[in-house]
Amino acid sequence: MNVDHIGGDDPDLALALLPADDLTEADRVFYRFSTDQGTVGYGGLERCGNVALLRPVVVLTEYRGMRFGTDVVEWLLGEAGRLGMLSVYLLTERAAPFFERLGFVVTDRADAPPAILRTRQATGLCPASATLLSRTVHG
Length: 139
Ligand SMILES: CC(C)(COP(=O)(O)OP(=O)(O)OC[C@H]1O[C@@H](n2cnc3c(N)ncnc32)[C@H](O)[C@@H]1OP(=O)(O)O)[C@@H](O)C(=O)NCCC(=O)NCCS
Fold this sequence. Notes:
Layout: E1 2-6, H1 11-16, E2 28-35, E3 38-48, E4 51-59, H2 68-82, E5 87-92, H3 96-100, E6 105-106, H4 114-117, H5 120-125, E7 131-136
Parallel strand pairs: 4-5
Antiparallel strand pairs: 1-2, 2-3, 3-4, 5-7, 6-7
């Protein structure tokens, strides 16, 4: 799998990664994942001090169920480590079981770092019903 660092203003990223109105703000890095056949998905990290918010991971429909999602999350965890992050948090409405298989645990918002709770994803872009999960980068 190939990985390219892309800008938050990449038009395909905005289509894939909804909700998306904060993609071009500071402290976010986004990546496109591809094979020789083309793009398979997108992901990103939003840095909040020494922890990061995992931005929604998207595998294009035709490539789902082929382990690309697992590879993308594992690559992003490695990248978070290279960026000096200690833990990674994420909000998801439907995919909590997918992330639990990858070592993430459901986390009470009261136990999350304030910087994570202040992100636009946590304060508005994701519904209040979204599940918060976390994982240590080297766990
Ligand atoms: C969630 C998503 C990234 C998974 O990508 P994927 O490439 O299909 O995942 P994988 O092939 O690596 O799946 C690994 C395992 O997790 C399971 N899985 C995949 N999506 C799941 C989900 N939403 N809930 C529970 N399990 C899921 C797979 O069935 C597979 O199980 P298996 O090991 O028994 O075969 C992809 O379905 C997607 O883009 N969904 C829409 C966007 C989304 O919900 N993103 C997550 C929010 S951040």
